Amino acid sequence: MDLWYGLFTGVLFGALLQRCEVIRYDRQLGALRLRDMTIVKFMLSTVVVGMIGVYLLFDLGLVKLSVKAAVLGGVIPGGLLFGMGWGLVGYCPGTAAGALGEGRLDAFWAILGMFVGAGLYAEAYPALKAGLLTWGDYGKITLPQVVGVNHWPIIAMITLGALLLFRWFEKKGL
Amino acid sequence: MIVATPRSRPWSPYLGGALAGLLVVLSVFLSGKYFGASTTFVRGAGFVESLFSPERVAAMPYFIKEIPKLDWQALFVVGICVGAALASQLSGTFRVQAVPDSFAERFGGSSARRAFVAFLGGVLAMFGARLADGCPSGHGLSGTLQLSVSGFIALVCFFIGGIITARLQYKGR
Question: What is the mean pLDDT of residues B54-75?
């Protein structure tokens, strides 16, 4: 059943990504070149709707959160390295699969590279686990916990920030 | 002769993104699953390697942590490919292309060159995503929408790294 949910959710998500042109190299590089914010508009819209919905259901006790640990030794260098690779490949792991679906042949090489990267990481993992991944482990923390407030003020602020950013994007034609 | 194909206009990223947000909420409600993609590449790599040396893979700590198997996320990633294929066919926007437009404009139309850059970028991006414990789906969407600190840090680092390499490649254009 889980597998069917996965497939069905993926098909809908892939269709949305495709119709908004979010899976295109040109759009992803457009954002990184700070000239076309299509993917940022898509991402932030997803985040705003998602956080309101998920926390609403969370307050009602209907869903669980699944927060990843903030391990600074992993997330900062890993995030920067991901970004540098992303700037070259122009697809992230999910969008590469979508790009292949809409006929972009270079996404095949991207995906092949991603499998190799995952394999290399598995080789490096024992050393990283003993070293870099022990640095700055703050556990599974969320912004409301850090600031010491309820989640709704934070959600309201992020939503307001996103709306102001959207208005600025539209004004600048980004 | 150039045959004009009917190409539908793209959807608003605000609308599409908001619908994707509803999809996340529905997915979490129905199956308890947040979006993610990069773990699937670990499981896939483990699966391929285990065809050649199953004993070695069975003893590797990272493949013990992320056991190579078909799970929700693997089908989710396959689904993205299928969904994009269906949507592009239905909207007349399916297009076989080896070199993206902006890449060709900057670096020429060599598909071998583009394949090399895509491959190299893919290796770096996935190594980084696994070190960070997530990609733009797992951290960028699922992490930030749960207000997790790791999600926001990762998202900022993704963009800093990406802007650096985009600058290096497209400087002055």
Answer: 94
Inter-chain CB proximity B111 and A105 less than 8 Å:
yes
**Mutation for A interface: B89, B127, B139, B155, most A CBs within 10 A:** B127
Which residues 88-117 of chain B have a CB within 8 Å of chain A? 88, 91, 93-103, 111, 114-117
For residue A85, what pLDDT is reported? 98
Query: Is residue B148 classed as helix, strand or coil in its secondary structure?
Result: strand
Confirm or reject contact between A141 and chain B (CB < 8 A).
Answer: yes
Q: What does the DSSP assignment read for chain A?
A: -HHHHHHHHHHHHHHHHHHTTTT-HHHHHHHHTTS--HHHHHHHHHHHHHHHHHHHHHHTT-----PPP-BHHHHHHHHHHHHHHHHHH---HHHHHHHHHTTBTHHHHHHHHHHHHHHHHHHHHHHHHHTGGGTTB--S-BHHHHHTS-HHHHHHHHHHHHHHHHHHHHHHT-
Interface of B with A in 13-52 (CB under 8 A): 13-35, 37-38, 40-42, 44-46, 48-49
Q: Does A137 touch chain B (CB under 8 A)?
A: no
Q: How far is A122 from chain B (nearest CA, A)?
A: 5
**What pLDDT digit, counting tens, does each position of B87-138 carry?**
999 999 999 999 999 999 999 999 999 999 999 999 999 999 999 999 999 9
pLDDT of residue B1 exceeding 50, the answer is no
Taking the alpha carbons of B108, A39, A19, B32 in that order, is the dihedral positive or negative? Answer: positive
User: What is the ipTM score, two decimals?
Assistant: 0.96
Global pTM exceeds 0.90: yes
- B137's CB contacts (< 8 A; 6+ apart) are A92, A93, A94, B35, B36, B37, B38
Place of tokens 């394999």: A119
B93:A18 CB<8 A: yes
Using CA atoms, how far apart are residues A107 and A101, in angstroms rounded to an integer? Answer: 9
